[in-house]
Design brief:
The structure holds two protein chains of two kinds. Chain A is built from 18 helices and 14 strands. By secondary structure, chain A is of the alpha/beta class. The longest helix of chain A has 29 residues. Chain A is globular, with a radius of gyration of 23 Å. By secondary structure, chain B is of the alpha/beta class. Chain B has 17 helices and 14 strands. In chain B, strand 10, helix 13 and strand 11 form a beta-alpha-beta unit. In chain B, helix 7 runs parallel beside helix 10, helix 12 packs parallel to helix 17 and helix 13 runs parallel beside helix 14. Chain B is globular. The chains are: A alpha/beta, B alpha/beta. At the A-B interface, helix 1, helix 2, strand 3, helix 3 and helix 4 of A face strand 1, helix 2, strand 3, helix 3 and helix 4 of B. The structure holds iron/sulfur cluster (SF4). Iron/sulfur cluster sits at the interface of chains A and B.
Chain lengths: 456, 456
Amino acid sequence: MQSALLTERKDQVIRNDKTTAVDITCDKDSAAGAISQRACVFCGSRVVLYPIADAVHLVHGPIGCAVYTWDIRGALSSGPELHRLSFSTDIQEIDVIFGGEKKLYNALIELIERHKPKAAFVYSTCIVGIIGDDLESVCKKVTKETGITAIPVQSEGFKGNKRAGYIAACNAMARLVGTGDTSNIPPKSINILGDFNLAGEIWMIRKLYEKIGITVVANITGDGRVDDIRRCHGASLNVVQCSGATMHLANMMKKEYGIPSIRVSYFGIEDMADSIYAVADYFKDEEMKKKAQEVIRQELAEVYPKLQEYKKALHGKKAAIYVGGAFKAFSLVKAFRLLGMDVVMVGSQTGTESEYRELQEITDEGTIIADDSNPLELSSFLKEKDVDIFVGGVNERPIAYKLGVAFCDHNHERKEALAGFTGMLNFAQEVYSSVLSPVWKFMPRKATTQLEQSND
Amino acid sequence: MTKMPKPNYISTTNACKLCKPMGATLAFRGIEGAMPFLHGSQGCATYMRRYIISHFNEPMDIASSSLGEKNAVFGGGPNLKEGLKNVTEKFNPQLIGIATTCLTETIGDDVPMILHQYQSSSKTGCKQPMLVAVSTPSYSGTHMEGFHATVRATINAVTEETVDTEPCSINILPGFVSPADIRHLKEIASDWNIKATILPDISETLDGPALAECELIPHGGTPIESIKKMGSATATVEFGRSVADENSGALLLSEKHSVPCHRLGVPIGLRETDEFFSTLEAITKTPRPTKYSEERGRLIDSFADGHKYVFGKRAIVYGEEDLVIGITSFLAEIGIKPVLCASGGKSGNLKKAINSACGDLLKEEPAIYEGTDFYDIEEMAAGLSPDLLIGHSKGYQLSRKLDVPIIRVGFPIHDRLGGQRILHLGYRGAQYLLDLIANALLTKKQDDSPVGYSYM
Ligand code: SF4
């Protein structure tokens, strides 16, 4: 078989041999003509800011950018639902010629009057970068006239990849931080960063923290509110999930307000428990630590026996992982291990070198590690490793199904909560019900390998 | 009557249209051995893939020239060439379909010239794919215009000198219908002994079987050899009353190759299908196979069975203009009252086309709006007390608010299985739609009934 790897991408895929040091190239622009699974700067900022539910999110660009991101994540809100609407200036040829600032201004005024939002985020897209509309000055004007803060998000699609979009989003939020009243925030308080409340996950996590006596000031950004972000600098600690999306904001808050941050993950039992302990440890509060132990004990007692059942059924099955950020991949590797399964391939769209190094450490020998992969490679990995389940996003799903491989959506469109203790159980349940489904028996790929085996 | 859309409407909320390049990629996906290629930044390709995959549940590869900041300033030529080279090497396509985006249209890349340079500098000897380029700036028009323009561009680039007319060979330009629709068209042609070239043909490429091996490019699609010969066909039949002359492939074939053209509505419902069948009868000078007279007879019989349950019901129809026209005309036939026909497209033909398709059947003209979005549709719906919505998945929120059933047709179907298997065309399609609509109304009645009766 011809290699599925483009020559340009040789350095972006390694096979874990446990001895050679990782020397993987990453954060590199996708090769022209490769079918990358990566999106643009705009996409990066849109997905981070999107769950802020009481803000207008106006996409300044042609209709596509807005349509394809309409209600793109299952980010739930406990109140307003402005984030689920798709606002666009729908740039037309005439705006390209004469500039779109006037249209943008009108659109903002119209939408603010119509929806009375707490703030408005205005995203620039490729075309805006080219025609050079001054979003800053339009936003300033609108803010002055309406009293509603309008914030430009510098997210011109071509100015980098998704990761640059995360930074643009953080820069936009940073303008809100520090503008609210913090007087009644208790010392034992945190912000939750980097969870997007898919399928209501942040509600579970908030509850766990509150159970051990912590006040959560702001969810950034799942079930997010503008006013919470305005006062989130009053919290004592930033708890950041995953590496990519909101780390930049945490770093800025550290610099500006001296607020430290810890990185956590809510996926899998170990990591979820660690996330609670880490906060309790930070506050050096014995009472809190005790409560944490108690909470975790209770939760585990609930899910552990059921997980053992799944483990029995799933033992020895093989999994492949391809997700957005590499940090999530760590948790998934551990989660699969908990289910007695082997991870044979792991990759991400936006991992960093140190993250890939860590992946090399925690995975077994022979595991494929890939940065910014594409369908061609992914399908060749699935076949080579004879994978039983593939974890990825919607773009990866048909690759798996075509080849008769079970699939679990662990990306922004999932409708099942996969975080926290209950999330682990849901995850196990989903893996179980997909891997053990009888349908794979009828898939041509399996049928031929079975045939070959019986001929051997 | 309802409120008119505001005359100075300046922002779009929940668009009822998609962008031009999206249509282009869909059309290219229906050509055998073709790879759709977007000349622009990475994001668009990734988004469109995801959008298309969610509907078809099939792999959808779209290559991209992945322009970055430097290219936006200095031009995208080098990336385009690099991308073409990479795609050729890895996928060995027979044809690469290149569509522009807002970015490359605005920075002024001269795509035909770049392609010319690329072709003359590529090594002779190794097989080069055919290149077809289409200009699809995302800031004008909709995906349907992009789709038709692509069909026309393909005909223009691929079709060869006319030789002798082939007896009973007919070109069918179906527009953007479902894979099931295309399969039905093929069946009709084969039952009739017509040698049909259907362009594009997504019946297999976007609705393929499970496979043992992953295909680089999905099999199926209109063979390039057949496209070459389109100029020698007996006639061309093109569906779509909203298609502008400059986007009509049928007109091009008639101008360049003197192939007589028949431009019809999309054959949805009884009368539009009748027109299609009598056109085929006229072209082939043979009567339709009895199978279809029988299907027609059964359809009319079921009209009688179902008429009571649908008569006088009020429907809102939305989506692509041609689908809206076809569905509206079908509703008129069965006694449902279309009260609002809305599309995000702006061909200028919608009103006229609906009136001529529905003819005498409608006592009252429905409200008909082009260039509209779901915000407007919702505003108008409030005063219309509709009994049902007919259109794609994006109307779901509205149907939930209004508490009326939504009949899912067209594209995209993101919240149900089987969007690719919906049959809209022909007597059989009308039969399917009738049952679907009547049963949805019966379900609603049954659910709302305090006793839950068990006979109609
Ligand atoms: S790449 Fe540019 S045009 Fe495409 S979706 Fe992103 S911002 Fe929009």
